[in-house]
Amino acid sequence: MDVKTLISDTKNNEFYPTPKELVNKMVEGVQWKMVHTILEPSAGKGDILDALAEVELEQRSYRRHNCELELYTWNEKLFKLYDIDIDCVEIDGNLQHILKGKGYRVVHDDFLTFQTFKKYDLIIMNPPFSCGDKHLAKALQMQKDGGSVICLLNAETIKNPYSNLRKELVQALEKYNADIEYVANSFSGAERKTDVEVAIVKVTIPEKKQESDIYHQTYSRMKKAAEYAERNTETGTDVMIGDYIKAIISQFNVEVASGIELIRQFWALQPHILTDFKEGTSASILKLTLDGKHNDVSINSYVKRVRLKYWSALFSNKKFTGNFTSNLIREYSSLVNDLQEYDFSEHNIRAIMTDMSRKMNKSIEEAIMEMFDRLSAQHAWYKESANNIHYYNGWASNKAHKVNKKVILPCYNVFNRWSGNLDTYHAMNTLKDIEKIFDFFDGNMTRSVDMCHVLEEAQEKPKNIDCKYFTVTFYKKGTVHITFKNLDLLEKFNIYAAKNRRWLPPDYGKKPYQSMTQEEQSVVDDFQGEEAYHKVMANKSYFLVETQEMLQLGY
User: Fold this and answer.
1) pLDDT digits over 326-339, tens only?
2) How many helices and strands (H and E) does the chain possess?
């Protein structure tokens, strides 16, 4: 029996094959890369799918020609390009026969009774005009958790919502911010003609955020336990832990407990989801993996992996690391793999804090002196850096020096070789350690400046760039000129370095200038002068700072 005979024998008086031109209008704007599954629930003889199968999409690629790359384009059929999975529903037996003959998969007869667990990215349809409201309502219900619907509908269904169902449908379309386009005479030249005005309804429902019952139940249970423990604890913790630490420990505990429950549920489910019913079968349809590895996932392997995740996050979060030096952070970050053997607990975090605090004094001191050398003696041999420092006769030393207001440092590879503009990344690397050191001395008193932002703004003209503690100018010959803005802060830095190197008298800052010996006065005169020393004595808490006073942990 041929197609025309099958169509003529159909009992469906509302069978109106969709013209190709109308299909093209229906699918305008569809992001086909996001479509992997399609349902056509009123498939007829497959006119909509046939039209889509003929859609050609222009693709672009590159090919090598004489050792050079050149752009070229080609066209490829939609379904072949994206390998889209298609299901059809059709109530008429004759039309089902036609669909199957074309190679389409018919999964049900009546869409209104169709039930499935399968998820479709797109439902596209031209349902019977008399019950289009029911079909569209059913499609929207199927896509309520996320997906798209494109429906060709009798315009009267929307324009004249006389029934409760139609009123609810109109409300749903408004809720989902549906795109509705009315088209007249769209079937006047079709295979079966009608003058009915139609509406092209397009709805995209965002993917519903998936919630985990296991997670929320675990969270609720652990929260109640924590509240009970807090109410019944007579003494609080002897170490103050910041909100961030408390929050991340709580998050860790919930994540581990939830994952363990999932693992237990998975293994309990295994006997019910085997690959077949054969006796002795042990292979499961579902697999549980850890980091993509298809091995048996144990509770201990999962716990170790989550520990690793949280220990890594802890040492990359500024709320925890605070003013730790980069060297100290790198030292502890390198131990993260070892830390996965230890619980992510308040006790263990506190132990690491104590250890880091003990090492911090030495670490800060080393970092400050390294920076002092970098800004002074380290580059004294460089001609343009000769004026970086002021030499003075120090206590038991004739090589004492201090950093001047303006310093010049070698600075190479900070300009992009192609554009000639300042390379923000390399410029940041040159300056960030200087800012970090001065942060220690400043005590967060100076308004913060986003260094990355100001450097990006100055990419084309990198002169007199205003940073937090200094202004900088980069030169393409390979130097950077740094001018410090806060001279008191610079003095504080120089005093710390000079005292550390024992270039200042042992009693510096302990007795007035007039009480000093002539030798002591001579060193002070050469270092800063009597007036500047009086200023230091008047504000000793600012200028004379010890290493432990600068230690500000991030908790």
Assistant:
1) 666 777 777 788 88
2) 22, 15
Report helix, strand or coil for 197: coil
**Which residues sit opposite 184 in a β-bridge?**
none
CA distance 78 to 370: 63
Three-state secondary-structure class, residue 89: strand
Contacts of 444 (CB under 8 A, 6+ apart): none
Domains annotated for the chain, with CATH where assigned, are 3-205 (3.40.50.150), 215-356 (no CATH), 373-550 (no CATH)
- Phi then psi dihedrals of residue 390, to 5 deg: -110, 120
pLDDT in tens, 270-291: 888 888 888 777 788 888 888 8
- Concatenated DSSP letters of 8-42: HH---TT--PPPHHHHHHHTTT--GGG--EEEETT
Beta bridge partner(s), residue 68: 65
Q: How confident is the model at residue 194 (pLDDT cuts 50, 70, 90)?
A: low
Cα–Cα distance list, 89 to 9, 10, 120, 378, 424 (Å): 19, 16, 13, 80, 58
Alpha-carbon gap, residue 532 to 514, rounded angstroms: 14
Return the structure tokens found at 148.
């798209």
Rounded Cα–Cα distance for residues 205 and 150 (Å): 12
- Vertex 147: Cα angle to 145 and 150 (nearest 5): 135
